[in-house]
């Protein structure tokens, strides 16, 4: 299948969203040296992609879906759209991308009132969507280290859990010259998520405070020391996460008319990447219409919602102090990618209309109820997946989505990462600051069949019979 291997290479530059300054892509840059704003990466030769027809691009990407070439099996199936400067030998693949889109169970679909599906990004290698961006960021670092013969590069990130798990996993796989350090807000990462960077051998540091505090520390490091920052300020990560848009379009046979995407905002990197990806597809004619994109935020961390809720001429950006949220990955009061969101949302609305991009607010109670309801119907949604379902329900109630449309919800991580919140719900143990009261219809707890002493007091046959009888009575079974 050598005919599917990329032959087109490009030149790339960092483009500052503040002063429009440009810098070469072969350097570790995260913010503009001139004005301090964030970057987007741009392929200077992007116009050359128009030399191939939209139909040919679709056919090529469909052919690559069957490829056994390692460099094309993950997010780099869309190599020319992502990072066409990289060499195949540097591309890192751990099984990321190409995550399943699972239609809502019929009973759940009927409850909600329109056709929708989950894209299960929790089925990435580290069990979250972050692997899309890390695959690109680490491929770039391999390429850069090889070009410069660097002997050691420290990769650093602040995290609420998923970023650290992903960064540590990819650093462990690549190995020298890369080493991983992660900084976490003490006590605000689930035990399941904490176990991941520890298991991958990263240096794990904890800091009192919240994610925003950790972010300021690693930003200071990146500005004053030669380290590789792996948060979404890293523009290479945004490129890898664009693959979500490309996969979504390809799965729907490049027809995204009447499709509404619901995406948790968090640090705003993912919604940035998805808009950027669809804008590229639209510019090249691979999709004829843009899907509508709804960012979703909890009322406990909703700066982007507040910005867009204001009249257009009265909007001012204002970070917020976050309150505890079960959607931990989205519990960010000052998302670093907001300047990208604002810039790309302008372009997205210009191309798709005023209703093409909107932000929805949800309550913590709605997030937990929606997550449990989804998983009660056979899904594996995390709290962010619950946030998206709650956003869909609210959008329907507000008349922002019609029942003739279809929706795709982003389950950013695997539900097992948030088993602790499920346990708090089932045992009614949430602290008052969350504002969550369990719905008895969604709560679930194990029931004891026999007292613990029964195992030692009864012979095997009697023990089995007594347990079976207790089970039959509990389940109201009728004898044959």
UniProtKB/TrEMBL annotation:
UniProt xrefs under Gene3D superfamilies: 3.40.50.1100
Family: Belongs to the threonine synthase family.
Gene Ontology molecular functions: L-serine ammonia-lyase activity; threonine deaminase activity; threonine synthase activity
InterPro entries per the UniProt record, alphabetical: Ser/Thr_Dehydratase, Thr_synthase-like, TrpB-like_PALP, TrpB-like_PALP_sf
Keywords of the record: Lyase, Pyridoxal phosphate
GO biological process assignments: isoleucine biosynthetic process; L-serine catabolic process; L-threonine catabolic process; threonine biosynthetic process
EC number in record: 4.2.3.1
Domain of life: Bacteria
Pfam families given in the database record: PALP
Modified residues (N6-(pyridoxal phosphate)lysine): 130
Name assigned to this protein: Threonine synthase
Domain Tryptophan synthase beta chain-like PALP: 94-404
The species this protein was found in: Candidatus Desulfovibrio kirbyi
Co-factor requirement: pyridoxal 5'-phosphate
Enzyme class: lyase
């Amino acid at each position: 299948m050598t005919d599917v291997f990329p032959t087109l290479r490009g030149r790339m530059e960092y483009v500052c969203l503040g002063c429009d300054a440009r810098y070469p892509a072969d350097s570790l840059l995260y913010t503009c040296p001139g004005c301090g704003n964030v970057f987007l990466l741009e392929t200077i030769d992007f116009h050359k992609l128009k030399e191939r027809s939209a139909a040919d691009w679709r056919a090529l990407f469909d052919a690559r879906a069957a490829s056994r070439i390692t460099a094309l099996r993950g997010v780099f199936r869309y190599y020319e759209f992502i990072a066409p400067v990289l060499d195949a030998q540097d591309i890192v693949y751990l099984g990321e991308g190409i995550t399943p889109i699972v239609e809502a169970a019929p009973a759940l679909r009927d409850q909600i009132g329109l056709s929708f599906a989950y894209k299960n990004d929790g089925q990435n290698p580290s069990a979250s969507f972050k692997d899309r961006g890390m695959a690109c960021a680490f491929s770039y670092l391999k390429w850069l280290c090889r070009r410069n013969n660097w002997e050691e590069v420290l990769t650093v990130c602040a995290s609420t859990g998923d970023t650290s798990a992903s960064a540590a996993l990819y650093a462990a796989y690549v190995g020298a010259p890369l080493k991983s350090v992660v900084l976490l807000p003490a006590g605000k990462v689930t035990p399941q998520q904490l176990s991941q960077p520890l298991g991958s051998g990263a240096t794990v540091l904890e800091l009192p405070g919240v994610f925003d505090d950790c972010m300021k520390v690693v930003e200071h490091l990146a500005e004053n020391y030669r380290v590789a920052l792996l948060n979404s300020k890293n523009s290479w990560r945004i490129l890898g996460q664009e693959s979500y848009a490309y996969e979504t379009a390809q799965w729907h046979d490049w027809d995204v008319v009447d499709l509404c995407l619901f995406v948790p905002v968090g640090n705003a990197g993912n919604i940035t990447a998805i808009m950027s990806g669809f804008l590229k597809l639209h510019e090249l004619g691979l999709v004829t219409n843009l899907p509508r994109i709804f960012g979703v935020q909890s009322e406990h961390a909703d700066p982007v919602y507040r910005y867009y809720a204001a009249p257009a001429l009265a909007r001012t950006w204002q970070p917020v102090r976050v309150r505890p949220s079960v959607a931990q990955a989205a519990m960010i009061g000052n998302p670093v990618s907001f300047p990208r969101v604002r810039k790309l949302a302008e372009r997205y609305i210009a191309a798709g209309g005023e209703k093409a991009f909107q932000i929805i607010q949800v309550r913590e109670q709605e997030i937990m109820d929606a997550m449990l309801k989804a998983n009660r119907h056979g899904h594996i949604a995390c709290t962010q997946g619950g946030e998206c379902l709650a956003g869909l329900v609210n959008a329907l109630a507000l008349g922002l989505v019609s029942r003739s449309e279809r929706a795709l919800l982003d389950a950013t991580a695997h539900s097992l990462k948030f088993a602790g919140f499920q346990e708090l719900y089932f045992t009614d143990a949430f602290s008052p600051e969350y504002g969550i009261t369990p719905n008895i219809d969604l709560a679930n707890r194990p029931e004891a069949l026999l007292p613990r002493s029964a195992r030692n007091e009864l012979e095997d046959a009697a023990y089995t019979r007594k347990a079976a009888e207790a089970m039959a009575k509990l389940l109201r079974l009728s004898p044959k």
